[in-house]
Amino acid sequence: MILFSSGVRLIVVAASLTTPLAGCEMSHDRYVELLTRADSAMTSHQDRLRREFQLGHWRRFDYDEGAGILLFSDSGVAKVLADVQFVGVVSRRDSTWTWAWELPYVSPSLASAAAKARRYGWLHGVPSLRRSDWAADDADGWEMTSLTAWVAGGEGAYRAPSSDSSTYTFMLLRNVRWAPPGRRVETYLISPKAH
């Protein structure tokens, strides 16, 4: 593209999204440093959620995809609520990671944090953040979730198993809060997409 300004010709090159905008891949050492920082921050977040909200203690979880809310409960009574962003899924069947932005059943509004991580991957040359799916295990799911929280913000994370435990869905938690005392779970699960 050629632009003219005050008689001076400027040439602007439009970057292609098929290669990183920085022009090269992030070095392995730099990636490890980034991942270490992200994992450390996530560990601090998770420790705080365990301490303040007893996450890991509650017997059940449910989510209302339409409302974007994850709730933890005991004996049918909601205890803790969190707004969620879906990050991705690890399949135990074929050992793959798939980003939320690639999953047809996740609405774009609930995959916006993952989309932000993807943009970061393009801008900074991080292949694992921009490829839609790749060979992975549970540890990779936690790493991508930590990186997404680092890039897009999050107070913590949750890994939800599917009913047959063939997949794990990784989510960022935001706006974590106590539920009003005594409020039943079903009063929160109001959208047609509630699980």
Order of helices and strands: EEHEEEEHHEHEE
- Largest sheet, strands/sense/barrel: 7 strands, antiparallel
Shape: globular
The total number of structural domains is 1
- Number-wise, the strands total 9
Number of helices: 4
Helix share, percent: 25-40%
Termini, distance in Å? 50 Å
Compute the average pLDDT: 87
Q: What percent of residues are in strands? A: 25-35%
CA gyration radius, whole angstroms: 20 Å
Please characterize this protein's 3D structure.
The protein has 195 residues and is an alpha+beta fold. The protein is built from four helices and nine strands. Strands 3, 4, 5, 6, 7, 8 and 9 form a seven-stranded antiparallel sheet that branches. It has a two-stranded antiparallel sheet with strand order 1-2. Helix 1 (28-53) packs across helix 4 (138-152) and helix 2 packs across helix 4. The longest helix is centred in the N-terminal third of the chain and has 26 residues, at 28-53. Mean pLDDT is 87; it is low at 1-20.
Summarize this entry quickly.
This protein is of the alpha+beta class and 195 residues long. The protein has helices at residues 28-53, 112-124, 127-130, 138-152; strands at residues 2-5, 8-11, 60-64, 69-74, 77-91, 96-99, 133-135, 156-161, 167-178.
